[in-house]
Amino acid sequence: MNRLLFLIDEVSTWVGKAFSWCILLLTFVVCYEVVSRYVFGAPTSWAYDTSYILYGSLFMMCGAYLLSRNGHVRGDFLYRTWKPRTQAGIDLLLYVTCFVPAALTLIYSGYGFAKMSWIMNEHSSFTPDGPPIYPFKTLIPVAGALLLLQGIAEMARCMICLRTGAWPQRLHDVEELEQIMLQQHAIQDDADRFAHEHAETSGGLR
């Protein structure tokens, strides 16, 4: 089960990290527009469309990645005081009653928006020759599907916690543990090397 959960985490992580490059492109576009508009007095016709497409893509496609990292905002001042089983029970209830219907709605409605956009060959109306936005709208149901997939993994974690009384590991927990182990091995290697050198030096002095 953990292997399957880690696989879903890896999919969300790969997608999130791939789309995180949008923030670098967005920074470049905004800086270019500011300099072009206020220094050279020549505003671009494409910066606005590019900005909201990049930001929207980043926002939608990194949602599952953030969920896999357990990074979404919650009332931690209450949540952290509960026992793991209580946390898991509340989480599972909210996933079933709120999260899953929202993700299914996003998939269903997003598919309709994307389909109509492709049929219309829809372009942005903010500029005279705006870019096509049907690829952007296609990301809506894709983001919903990724969220639903990661949500299923989170519900499985809730059920495991309800059964065992402890939260199962997440992918980033495993990654962090591996880093700690590597650091410990490096420290031990340095200590062994120092001890060996010290022993050789002491033997030479005798």
UniProtKB/TrEMBL annotation:
Subcellular location: Cell inner membrane
Name the UniProt record assigns to this protein: TRAP transporter small permease protein
Bilayer topology term: Multi-pass membrane protein
Organism: Aerophototrophica crusticola
The protein's role, per its UniProt record: Part of the tripartite ATP-independent periplasmic (TRAP) transport system.
Pfam families: DctQ
GO molecular-function terms, A-Z: transmembrane transporter activity
InterPro entries reported in the protein's UniProt record: DctQ (IPR055348), TRAP_DctQ (IPR007387)
Source taxon at top rank: Bacteria
Chief localization: membrane
UniProt keyword annotations, A-Z: Cell inner membrane, Cell membrane, Membrane, Transmembrane, Transmembrane helix, Transport
A GO cellular component annotation in the UniProt record: plasma membrane
Family, per entry: Belongs to the TRAP transporter small permease family.
Domain (Tripartite ATP-independent periplasmic transporters DctQ component): residue spans on this chain: 27-158
Transmembrane segments: 21-40, 52-71, 92-114, 134-153
Subunit structure of this chain's protein: The complex comprises the extracytoplasmic solute receptor protein and the two transmembrane proteins.
Chain segments annotated as coiled-coil in the UniProt record: none
